[in-house]
Amino acid sequence: MKKIINLIFCFSVFFAAGFSEIIKFRDGREITGEITSMDLEKVYLKNSKSFSLKEINEIQFNKEKSTKTLEIVLAPSESDKKDSEYFFALADEFSKKNPGANGLILLDEGEYFLKPDGTWVLKSRMVKQILKEGLKDEWGEVSLYTEDGRERGRIIKADVYLPDGSIYTLDSSKIKTSKPQTSGEFFIGGYTLLTYPLPKLSVGAIIDYEVEEETYNPFRKDFFFPSWSFQDFVPVKLSSVKISVPKNTDFYYSVRNFPKGKENPQVSRVAGEKTYKWQLEDIPAIASEPMMPSVADIVPAVQGAIFNDWNRIFDWMGQMHRERSKPSEELIKFTQELVKDCKTPEEKVAKIYHYVQKEIRYIAVKVGVASGWGGYDANLTWKRRYGCCIDKALLLTAMFNAIGIKSSPIILNTNNSKETDFSIPQIGFNHAISAVELNGKKIILDSTGYDFRYPEIAPFDYGVKALNIFNKSIDSVPEPKPDENGSYYDYSIDISSDGYTKVTTRWRYTGPKEGMIRGYYRSVKKEEQKRGFENMIKEISPSAKLLNYEVNNAETLDAPFSISLNYAIKDFAERAGDILIFKLPDFEKNFTEVSLMKRKYPIKYDVTYGKYYTYKINIPDNYEVISLPEKTKISLKQGSFDSECRQEKSQIVCRAKFEISSARIPAEDYSEYKMFLEKTANYTKKQIFLRDLTLSIKN
């Protein structure tokens, strides 16, 4: 009843003004006329004509050149009522198979239609039920992004079905249109966002919405790359996608992570088109696991294209990139001056690499295809001193061109996002870096950061394949050896007979680890650095006191980064009679990635790495060593741990090496890998025992 009152009030406001109207019908017709009255069934015109509200999509009320638009909110149709009844019955049955779920996706379907003129439409429908309070906010809005000048978006349906039988249909007057623009380091414009807040959501409610995206002006009419994924963090009853192309158009596809026997589509031919359909039912929820791969790499997914090799993409990007990486005379002169004191080609490359990192700020300003995939002209990026990943890669290539060194932008997906399936061409990449040919070797450089000393790159660049645009090749970015991405910890420890201990330590790093640590300390204020170190040593012992520290070369890329700490611990060594007992500081490990008994998904590290420890412990006078951790060596194909402690005159020297040599641990290897890390963790808890000889003699 409340719904009816709201409708009547809404319409009466507009009629009081005596507007002249344009009526738009759902079949595309438009008429102009003066509305005299309206009820919940019909609209009545001055010429005695009337039309059912079910026929009408929109009414525009005009007065004195101002326009207000009101789309008709329909009362629930018989179809809505049948849908509500059907989906509640389906939800009741499906929820019994999935007790404890936060929600259910009852239907998730998409339909792509590629037209002969190269334009296409995607229609998507989603039906889902809220079972826990937390999903009300997460699922509380229907939204749709479209690119201005190329795409049109429509929210066709957005119904809410309640358990008491109430149905709230789409109120189109509440659809909001905005032009979102990101801020900070990212500015991406040229898009329209449609949003619609779903009313009356409560636990048990079912949401049923349908949207349409029409790409009426594609930037290339021979580019069509449909994709679909079939799983979510709640159970899915049915997920399907249909991809229709003109009958004489070739269509190529790849599938991943499908259940055996479900990989092949149903193919049908009707009139002038071919349709490929994939469908999965009763899909379990994604179970979150520590350090699992990107969701895009574990769910069933389909991607397609209408050509089957990469040359078309190489040619398209290559044309833009070659033109935009030509250095001007001014840039050539500047580059040559920059490297004039360098003695070798490698020194020149390092100088330019550090310059682009430090002097060209990472800011993305993207409006449309040309700047998104092609980047801005390198000379413009150089002059305005900012750019995104592709802009900085083009500038790097232009500056290398200026001194006769060959390089190319390379396009990739970072290793913390979707792994690229190169069996099918696509353009869905998220990063651009550079490949340089130097002394017969290929060197990969990423100038987007500010902190990576030549030839270091960010950890998310490793272990992926990439498009080398100028070479027209698919290149690999290999994982570093563990010691090439290493943390090196050196400790000198003086223990007094009363347990009071002074620790002097120096930490060094190699590879991406050095860049990441440098970046952190470059961004942290001096007082915050001190507070961080104080908190760090308090984890070793609450009585620890920071004496002094140094953070070296955080602001420069010309020298290695390092940290030095001096601290004291009053009660580091515990006494039990004539025995002193202590652990190696900052050595104990806990590996959360093996906290589960079993895993469904692989463990995924960003990059291979190593940790290397050296401890030199000065034994107090009149003490003897009675127990040291035994020498150990644990290894398997994905990693190793070696450790040894021995007495050298009045010192105990302990050395340990922990290496992860594979960034991806398959689920089938989890049991063995879990045992390896647990053995390592147990070893790092071992203690050292010293005896006080003076007390022993007295006793």
Query: CATH first level of the largest domain: which class?
Result: Mainly Beta
Average pLDDT rating: 90
Helix content: 10-25%
Strand order of the largest sheet: 12-11-16-9-8-18-21-20
Q: How is this structure best summarized?
A:
With 699 residues, this protein is an alpha+beta fold. The protein folds into four domains: 2-71, SH3 type barrels (Roll); 78-305, Immunoglobulin-like, CATH 2.60.40.3140; 313-478, C8orf32 fold (Roll), CATH 3.10.620; 483-696, Jelly Rolls. The strands form eleven sheets. It has an eight-stranded mixed β-sheet with strand order 12-11-16-9-8-18-21-20, covered by helices on one side. It has an eight-stranded mixed β-sheet with strand order 33-34-32-31-38-42-41-40.
Task: Supply database-style keywords.
699 residues, alpha+beta, Immunoglobulin-like, C8orf32 fold, 8-stranded mixed β-sheet, 22% helix, globular
